[in-house]
Batch of 2 targets.
Target 1
Amino acid sequence: MNVVWDLNEVMMAAIGGVIIGVAVSLMLLWNGRVTGISGIIGHSLKLTRGDWYWRVAFTLGLFLGGVVMLALSGPERFIDTTDADMGTTIIAGLLVGFGTLMGSGCTSGHGVCGLSRFSPRSLVATLSFMASGFVLVAVVRAWFGGN
Amino acid sequence: MSKYQEKLSHVLAAAVVGLIFGVGLVISGMTQPGKVIGFLDLTGDWNPALAFVMGGALLISTFTYPLIRRLEHPLLDQQWHVPTSRLITPRLVLGSVLFGAGWGLAGYCPGPAITSLATFTAKPAIFVLAMLAGMFAYHAFEKFIGPRFPGSK
């Protein structure tokens, strides 16, 4: 292991994290819900539910957040330096969509909201997806080398 | 618990939360897949910076959660909609493992992928379409195979 990081990146990560913490707090305070992004999107796909609009509005808000930041700080903060090709991206998307619904949450629902209310389910889920991510990246590195 | 009645105020509140969340994601670095994979790359050049995203968020939400839950009900609704299950099931673990693998492959989790659609570039768009297809596939799985899967409710 070779640790590579700089203080500026850590500061930005922490500031962004605090903003995310404020967002999930407002969702709880106003609507009484946890902000689990995969669940919000995934359950909006069942059109028979009586709670469609807030889910779509939240998703549009996420998109608008990107638009605002793109306008304010330019495209650097969206730059993709990975060499994942189209096939890899499709497989990744399928895994993320299927897996987050099967596991009832993703980084936001389990990793932030669940852990903040000390949910044992979310702790198990968070450890599982982090471990899986670590292992997958290590395997890719071992098999294909480089990045 | 009576049936949830969606109101305009809930829709507007959700949009505001989404906007703030999206801004936070971009500032944090989560919309840069290379950084995400760098965070997961323990055996290579490991970049631990993104651990501070979860740290920063938990710093706030761990404090606010118990405070807000002291209220009788949320400000815009008459009841709470917080998950109550405490079961550790095969679905929970297997689903999370599949998610982690997809996250490590492309460097996107659901939120940053949606926020990155703002760039109108191919990768986030393809990722989000595939993610939606995976979600549809899961709904089909629950319908046809779900009851026979270990750990069904």
Note: Helices of chain A lie at 7-31, 37-42, 53-73, 86-102, 107-116, 120-144.
Target 2
Amino acid sequence: MSEMISFESALLGEKYYKIKHNSGLNVFVFPKEMTTTYGVFSVNFGGNVNEYLCNGERVIIPQGCAHFLEHKLFENEDGSNADDIFAYLGAYDNAYTSNERTAYLFSATDRVSEAIEQLLYFVTHPYFTMETVNKEIGIIAEEIRGCVDDPYDRCYMNMLGAMYFENPVRNEICGSEESISRITPEILYRCCEDFYTPENMVLALCGNVTPEAVLEIVDREIGKERRRFASTLESFDEPREVKCGFVEKKMPVGKPLFCIGIKDCAISASAFERYRRTEGMNILLHMMFSEAGEFYLDMLESGIVSPGFDSGYSSSAKTAYVMMSGESDFPETLLERIKEHISKCRREGLDRSDFEREKRCVYASYISDFDSTEDIAFALTSYAYDGVDLFEYPKIIESVTFEYVCELLDTVFDDECFTLSVIRPENK
Amino acid sequence: MTEKIIKKDGALRFHVINTDKFKMSRLSFNFILPADKEKSPLTRIMLAVMMRGCEKYPSIVSINKRLDELYGATVSWRAVSVGERHIFRISCEILSNKYRLPEDKTDILYEVAKVILEILFNPRLDENGLLPESNFESEKKLAIDAIRSKINDQKAYSAEQCRRIMLEGSPAGISVEGSEEQIEGFTLEQVSENIQYFLNNSALECYYIGSDDADAVVSLVTDAFSKLNRSEIVLLGEEKALIREENSSIRETTKKMNVSQGRLNIGYTCGVVMSDEDYPAMNLFNEIFGGSSVAKLFINVREKQSLCYYCYSSYHSATGTVMIGCGIKPENREKAYAEIEKQLISMQSGDFADEEIETAKRTIISGARQIYDNPSALEAFDFRRILAGVSETSEELIEKIKTVTREDVVKMAKKVRIDTVYFLYGDGEEDGEEECDDE
């Protein structure tokens, strides 16, 4: 039988249900009185996967497969397209591929059960032919060209490429025009077979839904039989230092763009620890670099950065880094000033009242995530893969102490972990 | 959900929408001025300088520190053009008092409103009544940088160029940002003197959407403005559609840049603005033509011909125009152009299924319902109608959409006339391989 557990938050006045379905599918249902119901059906398979083991066999796939598959699953065997069906229901549908995952989603204000049914159906019923695959190559090639022309995207990808030696996050999610030309229907079917099994997937719904009704649809669409998920990704050894400290490219931009990456290789196996580190790092970065800090004011007034200068910490099970990005006429100077500022903070210590203020902001930002069914469905999804309860987050925030943040300041930010990526205007 | 409108003078209204649906609330100030080639960019710089600091909070850092104390309330501002008017909007996202930490008695909403009023009414002026020169110079430079950086996003850049060329010479074509040369020429005196003009002559529509009691904030704001010498401002006149003479030729512009993808943008006149009876039908036409991923343009230009990654049309109800954008390989320009024309002709001859009409109706209706899930969408829907001089709820719009017929859509398709073509392209060659220096 499927198991159902409920979680409640007195702070938020909200409740959700977690169901481990017979098939192995992880289902999350968050009833909420909103006009829009949002559903996300996702699989733990993304742009990072180029090589994996399945039942002892090593499989190598062309770069860009997960994203290609995302495009093709919308087409059904009878010639219909999921877009048409959702549009017919008055619903909106879309899909995203990230490094780690592929997510298919809908939002609907009406006929929600039918939309859930359709979502489960089209993602689990692949149909590809040589002809449909070849046609998609042209469309995705245009998408790739669009990314190649996007200076923000280039700046970011160059940063990842300079930061990592082995980590597949450095690869393009869409692949290249060359790699996608090697994709065949057989490869796509194989990826579905090896990754799109219920155990490796999450269904998250928020809005006008009940767990009972959802369960009934899942029983019907996915079936009750449990199928074994047998694929494992290749692990990689990533050195602590960055591959190279500086990368630049010329493009038609008005003003130089930069991404500063600071590699963090201390990644805990515990999701709670990783979340705690993420919040600790975000509070620390805010204390040092936010628009409420003297450093930003100094850089702004001396014309070294423009508004929009942003810093944040990004982390997943295998990848963690600080990124600071924006526009600057003097990115090298900015990098030096950032390093000096970090040394100064280490020397002089942090301010406890800054810490308290930033922690309050983190708390408010957590609460603000519960105003949209879209945000909730996505949060349920990412927490699900990490095995953390969404309502546990205030505890994680609480566990971030001033002392912990000071410790992060002393241990992250080694010189050999910095990289600077710049996109410079062509005619300068 | 309850709504009340508090009217202070002819030109200040406060809309309070109380609802328990949201944990965050929204407070916003929409200052409305006629599009003015000189004054609008000046006002934009003025506001930017004012947001950098006031007497009580002299720097951007002290303002942000105060906002962080108020649970990280965010305050942002924008200057946008809507037809022949320019809107200067300050909006705040604020945690509802209900979620304050235990023991905290601060009225967060009231305190945030106080910060905004400090910024507006007590700017940092020296003995000569001038704003800080360093902030002024810095904002001038940033405004120029922002204009130069527009090419970074080629999809938006080419769409804007097409729109600019199309509306040139009409008040709706006046840029709220101004040109580089114009901004260079602004003086600190001009910008500082503009503050009084701005406060006294803008129509102001304020919104509060959230669960807190906003009475105190309404009084605070309306009292502050009633102390001014505000003129009776009537700005909410009729919106006018762009009209071109019958036999005028198509305006074509081609620009070469070092990019690999081409961007083709086409502007059409349609003559229908929001206050027109035809507005719901024109919406429906656009939805079927290029408004979604099941629309004619997407299906035919992208899916069937694989010519592009995106191809959309959007209907602009303040100017009575329909704009198309698509990203293509430069050599496919003629093919894409021909296919877009072909799709328009097929719409004009009624070559679309009843199912397409029904689907488009459901999509628009669903979108109109969704505004109740998002305070900024709720405000945008209402405010847009205020500007158009239309009183219409989303339920009323839904009812009108339901009654649109196939004949109406065909009639709309026939109103659509090609006007401007803008093409941005490169030679398709990627150059400048990235250099990676080991340090």
Note: Residues 430-439 of chain B have pLDDT under 50 and may be disordered.
